[in-house]
Amino acid sequence: MSKKVLSTQEEIKSKSKNIRVRLQSKFYGEVGEIPHNEYPRPQFERDSFFNLNGTWDFCMQDASAEFKGYDSKILVPFSPESLLSGLDGKVCQPTDVLYYKREFTLPKGFIKSKVFLNFGAVDFECEVKINSKVVGTHKGGYVPFTFDVTDNIKEGVNTVEVKVTDPTDTSYHTRAKQALKNGGIWYTPQSGIWQTVYLESVPEKYIADMLITPDIDSDSVKIKLELVGGGEATVRALDGKKEIAKAQTKNGEAVLSIKDYELWSPENPKLYDLEIEYGTDKIKSYFGMRKFSVMEDKHGKKRLALNNKIYFQSGVLDQGYWSDGMLTPPTDSAMEYDIRLMKDMGFNMLRKHIKIEPLRWYYHCDRLGMIVWQDFVTGGRKYKFSVIGIGGFLNLPTKDTKRNHKKFARQDEEGRAEYYSEMETEINYLKNCVCLGTWVPFNEGWGQFDSKIATEKVRALDPTRIIDSVSGWYDQGVGNTDLKSLHIYFTPIKCPKDPRVCVLSEFGGYSYKERPHVFSPNKSFGYRIYGTAAKLEKAFKKLYEKSIVKNVKKGFSATVYTQVSDVEEEINGFITYDRKVVKIPVKTVVECNEMLKKCYRELLGE
Prior knowledge:
The chain has 606 residues and is α/β, with parallel strands linked by helices. The protein is built from eight helices and 36 strands.
């Protein structure tokens, strides 16, 4: 696909002369000519869909030079740094520009009234043209965006061009774990288009947005629609082919009364279909009847609850990195594989760490039954180790003050405004996901600022979910956050006495290098590293038997083990980076989760 494509085991050398291997995942051979060709919005699906993923013309060059023309081909939506892109893995620098171009043919009858061009994510800043005319610009590497291209597009042959720049970690912008000097818990940066690009067309009167709010206390589900064009819509709820409720909206809102329904839970992930008709615009969707809340147990201790019953959440940290696609899963089935494996191991929750996935990932969690804790993506300037490392491990006190904006690398007013803007976009993007139970505004002091204000903003935008305001440390004792959230790797695990719900939101990180399935043959990172798989399994089981079970009895309502998979040098996953080897036997992990369930049942007197 390009002038040079590295073989799966070819070694590459970074500037630090560290040897690294580009690994094919177990799904590498399943990637077709049009990757991720599934409809990208399972809860907002209409029959108008034209996928623009596939082979595009491409060029990466220095921004100071005149554009020299396209010299490569790239497989969208994979970033140029990834193996699946078909390129040689060169990392885009802050001084580089990425140029993309694709010619496509719209079939006759596709255009109704309006046409929208949708991007799942582009890292970081882009300018987009249709048929040589600029249709819009966007900043933000992790959130979706849409342009109205009605006046620029036509039936037949069209061209789309995208121009991208990415400062990575040289600015205050959102970057998460990407670092130009990667290593340890910081990973190879990626850039450009990394989620699905597609077109849709709608009639003159169309449904622009939808909010679904299930309420098990009133046996109803509220539907709020954003309707463009006046008039009202018809909403139907179905169980299979059987209609169970129907209503006409009033001012865009409808309440459906649901009878004899099944509650959604990890043990019974029951979903109901929705059909919405507004003129000639039709939307297919779904919902689940469930409720996330906080309750007191018989001892007066606050606990997490699901569907008005105290419910223990046993989870895993999930960073969503892939050896060949990096932030982009190679296939839809690859996303499903990770979720199913964690379910098979006995877990009922995943903490999506510093990343926003395509909506289809959340759809799989909805239908398979996996609760999700969703981190917001981190920004800010270079983090100080004394703040996010030493200060955090010592649990030093701090307050939300303007002086701490600089301490936490949040001195840029534009960066703080960007965080709030992207927070609103992310909540709106994921608002209808049945699985999503907890929002996590900040992680371990990474770009943390004004956490009380941030928590209040999240609460105002979504009062239906739990909030873990400051996961890990630098907890200001904020009165409106739900959780006392701890990360414990090196010191003895102890559940604190706190009036809030107590959760162990990161622990473990036990590591083993499963050769040859490693990104870095001569460098490793883990919180405790073991020389054999047998020693890793023994230590993992001991951790649960001797420490976790005891502290669940003392008050923890949720635990989050680190982590689903290895990521680059970080080798503390249940599975290898390429997803080819499960490092701890599934049976062993199931036994540990059964211990937690048993002790919780005993605790609640069940």
